[in-house]
Design a protein that fits this description.
Helix content: 40-55%
Radius of gyration: 14 Å
Strand order of the largest sheet: 1-2-3
Mean pLDDT: 90
Number of helices: 2
Order of helices and strands: HEEEH
Shape: globular
Structural class: alpha+beta
Amino acid sequence: MSAYEEFAREKRAVDALLQDGFVIVGTSEELEGMELRFRKRLAGSTESPEPVYAKLLLLTADARKYVSNLIFSEQQKKQA
C-alpha cells in the first residue's frame, strides 16, 4: 500500500468517528504511532447513558499532522 493510501485510510477512520458523534478526548505518542482516544455520550438513550469509548492508532506522519490540525482548529474556535 502506498504512503498516500495508508494516510487516506487513517484519515477516513478519524473522519468516520467524528461524524458518528465521537470527540477526541486524548492522544499519546508511542513508538508505533499516535494513539487517539475518543468518547461518545449516548444522548437520549434509555439503554445506556454511559459514554462509549473508542481508540485508534495512527501510523502515518500525515495522519498525525491531520489530527493535530483538527485539535488546534477546535482550540482556536473555543478561544474566539
